[in-house]
Design brief:
The chain is built from four helices and seven strands, in the order βααβββαβαββ. By secondary structure, the protein is an alpha+beta fold. Bound molecules: coenzyme A (COA). Coenzyme A binds next to helix 1, strand 4, helix 3 and helix 4.
């Protein structure tokens, strides 16, 4: 398994991976929604605000994650992890967790302070995410499942309560994704 940073030469293969994986797990319509979201994320996000990581096996892209910049009131450097996919045929082998750890190590090397995500706490807690109340840090859109709002600090400091709103990148700023 090889982990590396995403670059645009991999766009098509990554979009196809998300479409395949989410069609299998959530149905074809959701597969298309996520594929469209990833395509928009790649095209509309400034390069320094988007960090993708991919897992490859025998030249096939089998996993991909994206972190995009989240503006927070404390002005700390923060990113949000979304979306995440591992190819159906190689799930439950630890690839998802390894890929997220690879990405978090890269963010630490860039001095990123906070990382957020929105998803299943039982999966993301395996890579250091904890549930966070919106009284501490607000989500950028209204959450249909507040239990899935998760965060971790990368510098060992506790996450401080912040007053004010957060702002995600344009592609994520879609109420249907939250
Ligand atoms: C979720 C996903 C990225 C996990 O990747 P993976 O490589 O299969 O995960 P890992 O092998 O590293 O970890 C597996 C662990 O996570 C748990 N897990 C796997 N998929 C999960 C899911 N969809 N929800 C909750 N927990 C999940 C498993 O129970 C397993 O725990 P265990 O080994 O203690 O039993 C992958 O299953 C996937 O792409 N699913 C479809 C798309 C999706 O749901 N993306 C995430 C949206 S929040």
């Amino acid at each position: 398994m090889q982990f590396s940073l995403f670059n645009e030469s991999k766009s098509q293969r990554v979009i196809e991976l998300f479409k395949r994986v989410f069609s299998a797990s959530e149905g074809e319509a959701e597969g298309q929604v996520i594929a469209d979201f990833v395509a928009k994320l790649i095209v509309t996000t400034a390069p320094k605000e988007l960090i993708g990581c991919i897992a490859e096996e025998n030249d096939n892209v089998v996993g991909c994650i994206f972190f995009s910049r989240l503006a927070v009131p404390s002005r700390q450097v923060a990113y949000i992890l979304s979306p995440v996919a591992v190819s159906t045929d190689v799930q439950s082998k630890g690839i998802g967790q390894e890929l997220i750890k690879y990405g978090l190590d890269h963010l630490k090397s860039l001095n990123v302070k906070l990382v957020f995500t929105y998803g299943d706490p039982s999966f993301y807690s395996k890579t250091g995410f904890d549930q966070i109340n919106e009284n501490i840090v607000k989500a950028p859109c209204r959450l249909s499942q507040p239990i899935g709002w998760l965060a971790q600090s990368l510098d060992g400091q506790a996450i401080q309560s912040m007053t004010g709103s957060t702002q995600c990148v344009e592609a994520l700023n879609d109420p249907g994704l939250w």
